[in-house]
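Tokens for chain A. Residues wanted.
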């Protein structure tokens, strides 16, 4: 039979695995969800990524290059950008320190620990991937498809740069290997990610891992944590799930003092 026959040209004749129209049907959502889990899981295993340090923070944080461009253009936003670039530089330095000292550079039995993982986009995410890149270590970018497409930054390891459609699956991959969490100032997305992880730890749906909020003044202005306790919405012990830091070395020392390596998963 000719390849141009109506039978062979019919969509029903395509192999299911190659039929994207079929795979995108509403009824196949569970299959697509499973594929998003499996693809990232298998590729991370191929690279021997056993544990991660998650770095969250605002996508709008400016890089030094953006500040320089704003300075040259005499932008009216220059003062704000100069204030915020401090966080970009700190995230970059922290990721370099963590990559050099945490195990990402020196795999043990072909397993890498404490690999930097971000949301893969600009701002603080770029800064953390950049710091790992400058240390010569791999780093992960868990990107998400959005109405206004998020572009991956240039510093995440290409083979560890993923794109998710489902926020839930992306969050699951963030949580699965997390040995620690460092959260820099950010907006709605950063707050969502922070409280998602704190809730998992608080309810023991995830192991208790070190959590650092970087920029104490910012976080205390944005969130009145003590008010949650005073209103009976949280326990005082819940506020001990995290600590504040204002420089990269201090953030690293907090992770170490809270047993950074204690939650490395054994080989299976």
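Reply:
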């Amino acid at each position: 039979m000719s390849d141009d026959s109506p039978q062979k040209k019919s969509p029903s004749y395509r192999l299911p695995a190659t039929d994207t129209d079929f795979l995108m049907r509403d009824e196949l959502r569970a299959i697509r969800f499973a594929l998003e889990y499996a693809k990232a899981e298998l590729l991370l295993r191929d690279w021997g990524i056993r544990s991660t340090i998650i770095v969250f923070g605002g996508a709008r944080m400016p890089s030094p290059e953006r500040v320089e461009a704003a300075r040259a253009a005499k932008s009216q936003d220059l003062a704000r950008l100069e204030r915020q670039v401090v966080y970009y530089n700190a995230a970059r330095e922290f990721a370099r320190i963590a990559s050099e000292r945490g195990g990402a550079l020196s795999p043990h039995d072909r397993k890498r620990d404490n690999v930097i993982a971000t949301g893969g986009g600009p701002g603080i995410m770029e800064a953390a991937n950049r710091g790992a890149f400058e240390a010569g270590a791999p780093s992960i970018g868990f990107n998400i498809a959005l109405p206004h497409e998020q572009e991956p930054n240039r510093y995440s390891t290409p083979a560890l740069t993923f794109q998710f459609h489902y926020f839930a699956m992306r969050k699951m991959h963030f949580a699965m290997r997390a040995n620690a969490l460092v959260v820099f100032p950010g907006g709605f997305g950063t707050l969502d990610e922070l409280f998602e992880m704190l809730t998992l730890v608080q309810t023991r749906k995830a192991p208790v891992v070190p959590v650092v909020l970087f920029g104490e003044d910012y976080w205390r202005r944005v969130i009145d944590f003590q008010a949650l306790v005073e209103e009976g919405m949280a326990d005082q012990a819940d506020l001990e799930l995290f600590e504040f830091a204002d420089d990269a070395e201090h953030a690293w020392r907090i992770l170490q003092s809270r047993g950074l390596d204690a939650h490395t998963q054994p080989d299976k």
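The longest strand covers residues 139-144. Confidence is low (pLDDT under 50) at residues 262-268.
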